[in-house]
Amino acid sequence: MNANIPSEVLPILLILIGTIFSLLSAIGLVRLPDVYTRSHAASKSTTLGVLFILVGTFLFFLLEEHYFSIRLFLGIFFVFLTAPVAAHVLVRSAYRSNVALAEESVQDDLKDFIHTDSKKTKDAEVNNTD
Amino acid sequence: MAFQILLNVFLAFIWMFIKVSFDVSSFIKGYFFGLIIIFVFRRFFGSRFYLAKIIAALKLLLLFLKELILSNIAVLKMVLKPKLDMQPGIFAYRTMLTKDWQITLLSNLITLTPGTLVIDVSDDNQTLYIHAIDIADVDEAVKSIKHTFEKAILEVSQ
Question: Of A73, B27, B72, B94, which shows the fewest CB atoms inside 10 Å?
Answer without folding.
Answer: B94
